[in-house]
Amino acid sequence: MKAIVFKELKANRKGLSMWMFGMLFMVAIGAAEYGTVVENSESIMSMMDAMPRIVKVIFGMDILPVYTPLGYYVCMYLWYSMVAFAHAIVLGATIISKEERDRTAEFLYTMPYSRKTIISGKIIAAVINVLCMTIFTFLCIILTLVSQMNGESIMPLILTTMIGMFFAQMLCLAIGLFFSSLFNYHRTAMSMAILFFALSFVLAIVIEFVGNIEFLNFLTPFRYFFAPYVVTNGISSVYLLLSLFFTGVFVFLTYKLFEKRDIHC
Known about the structure:
Elements: H1 2-39, H2 41-50, H3 53-58, H4 69-95, H5 98-101, H6 105-109, H7 115-145, H8 155-182, H9 186-210, H10 227-233, H11 237-260
Helix pairs in contact: 1-4, 1-7, 4-7, 4-8, 4-9, 7-8, 8-9, 8-11
């Protein structure tokens, strides 16, 4: 299995680097705008007051004042999580079935390894990729954004949100793996993963905008560790357990479905 893990890490290093570059770009944009937002807090607030509430909800400006260090970070966290979650679910949808896409499945699945061993190696490599993405995001935020925030230490809160992001990424990864094992063709699995990601984001916006349908939070990873609530109340044990439960269920289904699936070479 160790050989499979290292093979997958090597095969995915280019893709991971591209996603990390996207995250760095997102964090850098936020860091570059922070000083402007703080210096022009009064005009920013008057502009926000004139915005429709749905716009403020979409951009994460509806709960905490965006001109404060914590409020600005919470606003940007939504965009960081979009990149991180997209990476996780796309990785899950591709890491198992990419051999079918590249027409190399016959070589891999005729090696002296069971399908279960191959899948396990791929999942371990995917988890390492997700962990690297989370650590990289945390370091980027610390080096570019937090370094500008004088007078208020929000490092513990950022670390807490990063932990929540990791568990949400794991759920997205498991959902991507499930789609990859459920559908016979790589393009279908990828399309369903992207559709789920888009619908999850829209549902998260609707839940926040409506305000009294929080019971639907379990349907979207964006709401499991919602940054404004995490920085106020910490990580919810309920959603932590739910994320672990659903991650385990989707991984279990991945094993069961893929062992019965026809491999298209």
